[in-house]
Amino acid sequence: MIEHISVLKKETIDLLEIKKDGIYVDGTLGRCGHTLEILKKLDKGHLYCFDLDLEAIEKGHQILQEYKGKYTIIHDNYKNMDSYIEKVDGIILDLGVSSPQFDNAERGFSYRYNSRLDMRMNSETKLSAYEIVNNYDLNSLNRIFKEYGEEKNSYKIASKIIEARKLKPIETTFELVDIIKSCLSNKVLKEKGHPAKQVFQSLRIEVNDELNSLEEFLNKIPAILKKDGRVAIISFHSLEDRLIKNYFKKFSTVKDDKRIVIKQQDLIKPDFELLNKKIIISTTEELEINSRAKSAKLRGIKRVK
């Protein structure tokens, strides 16, 4: 199993500009990489951590033992943080799947290990990749493969799944990989990257309602963030990054009527400002020790009034 290495750790912590007495949220606890860095900088402050994965929470308590009293771990989706906390000085989200989740074959996240289709972040929920693959109709499968996976052969793959499950349920990751491969041309199969990557991504997003959770959280930023508070989000695919970029742009701009001339001093300023107009990506040095950082993109925003 590959050890989990937090992506863009220094860059993310730098963006937050942590205050010693501040209230912070790590919305995606994972294996505590960013969590530890925040706790090291806190004195009288407090850190709230959220995660859906019970294994991550159990491991988190072990890793964070020396910081007892300075943190609270909550088994819930980060989108619900406003139910537990009123106002905060900073929030971090690392939206990637952790290495222990990917590399634990039993979790069914990876197309590289043969296991029962699962992909649940929260093992207590009912919906898994198995239910989706074996129960969703043709149009629904096509939609999630196309929208969440941006898979060009979405309809063909969805049709093949419907055909295959008439004979027997599709139970394992490798059974699904074989179906996907059977739908693709030799040219596509020879292209760089695993042919099942996009379909597996789309199933994971659907199982865990990832994009809806992110959008629900983004809508709550103005209500939960204090003045001078900061949000830093690391995303790993274009759908997430596009959503974050659009919301951050909306928060940090004010619509004005071009037909009306307004004096500089009368211009209405937005409530937020971007911390980085250009996305922050991993350095060459980081990529050498962590290839999974390749697709990571970091964006930050600050409340200015």
Lay out the secondary structure.
Elements (H helix, E strand, L loop, with lengths): L8 H8 L6 E4 L6 H9 L4 E6 L2 H10 L7 E5 L12 E7 L4 H5 L25 H7 L2 H10 L6 H12 L7 H10 L3 H4 L7 H12 L1 H15 E11 L2 H14 L20 E3 L9 H6 L7 E7 L2
Helix pairs in contact: 6-7, 6-10, 11-12
Biggest sheet strand line-up: 3-2-1-4-5-7-6
CATH homology-level superfamily of the largest domain: Vaccinia Virus protein VP39
Q: How many domains would you count in the coordinates?
A: 2
CATH architecture of the largest domain: 3-Layer(aba) Sandwich
Order of helices and strands: HEHEHEEHHHHHHHHEHEHE
Shape: globular
Question: What does this molecule look like?
Answer:
With 305 residues, the chain is an alpha/beta fold. It has 2 domains: 9-100 and 211-303, Vaccinia Virus protein VP39 (Rossmann fold), CATH 3.40.50.150; 107-208, DNA polymerase, domain 1 (Orthogonal Bundle). The protein has 13 helices and 7 strands. The chain has helices at residues 9-16, 33-41, 54-63, 99-103, 129-135, 138-147, 154-165, 173-182, 186-189, 197-208, 210-224, 238-251, 284-289; strands at residues 23-26, 46-51, 71-75, 88-94, 225-235, 272-274, 297-303. Strands 3-2-1-4-5-7-6 form a 7-stranded mixed beta sheet, sandwiched between helices. Helix 3 links the parallel strand 2 and strand 3. The longest helix has 15 residues, at 210-224. The radius of gyration is 21 Å and the shape is globular. It starts with 8 loop residues before the first helix and ends with a strand. The model has no long low-confidence stretch (mean pLDDT 92).
